[in-house]
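Before surveying the methods themselves, it helps to consider a single example record, giving the amino acid sequence and backbone structure tokens:
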Amino acid sequence: MDDDRRDPDHSDDLEGVLDAVGPRLRALRRQRRITLAELAATTGISESTLSRLEGGRRRANLELLLPLARAYGVPLDDLVGAPPTGDPRVHLKPLHRHGMTFIPLSRRPGGMQAFKMLIPGRGTPAEATPQTHEGFEWLYVLNGRLRLVLGDQDLVLPPGEAAEFDTALPHFLGSADGRAVELLILFGRQGERAHIRARTT
């Protein structure tokens, strides 16, 4: 992506969103009249971690927010309170497919599309079910260990690893160890490719 297209205030906006998570979680818990001990028993997250998260002394991440969203019965976006991206009149809503969540980060009809992809923790890794479709995909692992089945290759990508591939090749994305995974994805129609190539092993 071109650097000159980035919003210079984007990083500040992201910090503001993350800083607001703790107070939002505390307000929601008090509204539901749930104690830290009760919430810890429901989510499996320790009371001390929950207290630090609500007080802003622990940064929110997917492994903390997903069980909290389930416990409260609310969408992940309600906990994060993510602001609209791009045109403020258009709020890009998360997409839920095959048990995974795709959060759109761009809106360019017919062009390269950017998503943040969330694979929830399941306890045990899901069975690989490779699929094919037209296009080209570039991905970068933010958190967790991604299992990438690509044709006859079965790869595990830790945080910081990237891969790109033609989606006409049978492929599968899942958790390598049953725990949550966060990644960034750039997807383009056939012929559109990212400009950076990184090894996948």
Notes: The chain has five helices and nine strands. Residues 36 and 50 are 7 Å apart (CA to CA).
